[in-house]
């Protein structure tokens, strides 16, 4: 009951945000924007999209390895894309993170380790986004209201300072935590492991920003490309909050707001949001192939008996 209530609340938030956006949308301009998509830039963005997804899968693989779960990289990549399939085509119903946990547990991991691996995977993505904000808010944030710019910068600095402090002084605080949490954090926050995983989290964020900036190019958005390194981390953080259905409404609204501040029509932001999700569906299709192929193999094995 609680799961369905959460689903309908997220659906209501996404529906409300999209309704508000569409009330102010020039649909002729929106349709014209999609018709003008440059195939060259779009193909380039799709190429970068799959690179950053593979790097994301490798980051999760490294986290699992640090936590003591050793499985070949090809398996982790397949499970990662299967998770994308559920996130893309069944948002809010059966989360891709839960699917990832299920497959890892099925391979012999404990539920605790599998759950922590996914949580750390999300956390290092978040830290990578905050690091980009620390750099690009001062460099590229002149178009934003000053109080917003300062709030984002100091929040990012505070969170990263605390996190790096936890990594440096992990020996002094881990005994105060629960046994399972302390064990996993001791492994992940070991400075060598932490820096490796943080670097992978940052690499994923950089590739994601390049991917979206190429999508912007395909739509004819003319903002300086470094602005994306401020806008996209903010969009990603807000869209990942568990308040909407797959980020719908939040993603489009955030992009429309910031692009409008930079002199672009709101329709450009809405189009970029939908196009970003549309490319993500391609990753979901790859995951769907792996998922259905696995079901087919299981069916053949059961037919033998």
From TrEMBL:
GO cellular component terms attached to this protein's record: plasma membrane
Main location: membrane
Statement: the UniProt record of this protein carries the keyword Transport: no
Superkingdom field: Bacteria
Residues that span the membrane, as ranges: 39-58, 79-103, 123-140, 152-174, 194-216, 228-250, 270-292
Bilayer topology annotation: Multi-pass membrane protein
Compartments where located: Cell membrane
Pfam families for this protein: LPG_synthase_TM
Swiss-Prot/TrEMBL keywords: Cell membrane, Membrane, Transmembrane, Transmembrane helix
The protein's name: Flippase-like domain-containing protein
């Amino acid at each position: 009951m609680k799961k369905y209530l959460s689903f309908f609340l997220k659906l209501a938030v996404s529906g409300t945000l999209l309704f508000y956006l569409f009330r102010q949308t020039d649909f002729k301009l929106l349709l014209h924007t999609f018709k003008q998509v440059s195939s060259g830039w779009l193909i380039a963005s799709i190429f970068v999209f799959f690179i950053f997804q593979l790097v994301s899968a490798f980051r999760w693989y490294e986290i699992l390895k640090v936590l003591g779960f050793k499985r070949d990289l090809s398996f982790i990549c397949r499970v990662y894309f299967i998770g994308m399939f559920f996130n893309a085509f069944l948002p809010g119903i059966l989360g891709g993170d839960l699917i990832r946990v299920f497959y890892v547990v099925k391979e012999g991991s404990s539920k605790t380790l599998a759950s922590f691996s996914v949580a750390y995977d999300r956390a290092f993505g978040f830290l990578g986004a905050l690091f980009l904000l620390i750099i690009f808010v001062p460099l590229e944030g002149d178009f934003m209201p000053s109080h917003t710019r300062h709030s984002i910068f100091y929040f990012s600095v505070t969170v990263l300072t605390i996190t790096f402090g936890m990594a440096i002084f992990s020996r002094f605080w881990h005994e105060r935590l629960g046994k399972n949490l302390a064990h996993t954090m001791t492994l992940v926050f070991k400075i060598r492991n932490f820096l490796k995983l943080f670097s992978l989290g940052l690499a994923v964020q950089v590739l994601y920003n390049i991917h979206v900036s190429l999508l912007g190019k395909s739509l004819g958005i003319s903002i300086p490309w470094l602005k994306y390194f401020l806008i996209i981390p903010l969009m990603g953080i807000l869209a990942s909050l568990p308040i909407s259905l797959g980020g719908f409404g939040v993603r489009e609204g955030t992009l429309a707001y910031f692009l409008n501040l930079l002199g672009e029509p709101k329709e450009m932001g809405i189009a970029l949001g939908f196009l970003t999700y549309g490319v993500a569906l391609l990753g979901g299709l790859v995951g769907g192939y792996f998922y259905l192929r696995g079901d087919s193999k299981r069916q053949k094995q059961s037919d033998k008996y």
